[in-house]
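Table S2 (text version). Query chain:
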Amino acid sequence: MDKKKIRTIIKILKKRYKIKVKRDKPFKVLLGTILSQRTKDEITDSASKRLFEKADTPKKIASLKFPEIEKLIYPVGFYKQKTEGLKELSKILVEKYRGKVPNNLEELKKLPFVGDKTASCVLLFGFNKNTIPVDTHVARISKRVGLVEKNLSPEKIRVELERYLEGEERDIINQLFIFFGKEICKPIKPNCKVCPIQKYCGLYKKVNN
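Corresponding C-alpha cell output:
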C-alpha cells in the first residue's frame, strides 16, 4: 500500500466531508450496529430509539419477552433472528461480563451477531479506540482505488489499513468512505467524472486509458 496515496485521499475527502466522530455508550453502539446489519439507516435509527427508550442495559434487554423486542425493532432486516441474538447477547453480558461490554476485539467477536466490523464499531465509537470498521463502502472503495488487493476479506482489509494509518486517520476513514460511497463511488455506476480522487484511483485509470 502507498502510504502517501492513502493519506492524500483522506486529506481530500476530509475537506469535502466535515466529519465529526460521534461517540456513545458501548452497549448502545453494539446494539445499534447489530440492528443496522442489512437495514437502512433511517430504519435503524428509529428502531434503536424505540428499543433504548424501553430498555437501555443488558439486564433490561434480557428481561424483555421476544414478542416485545420484535415489535420494538421491526422492520429492521432479519428482526426475528436479531431479537434472539439481542436476548442471548444481553444474557451473556450479564452473566459473563457483569453487564459490561468487553473492550477488546477478541472478546467482542465471541458475542452473537458480532463480527469484525461490529466489534470495530464498538471499539471506535464506544471506547474511543483508534480502529477501522470495514463495511461494504470501505471494502469496495479500498479495492477500487487500489489501496488493497481485491481478494482480501473485510478483516484483512482492516489489518492492512491499520498498518499505515493512525490516530484521527483511523477514526474518520470509515465515515469518509461511507459518505463518499453514497455520493460518488456507488456500488453500481460510480460517478467517476466528478470524483475528487480520480487521479489516485486504479479503476478510473483503468477505464480511461
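Notes on Table S2: The mean pLDDT is 95. The first helix runs from residue 3 to 16.
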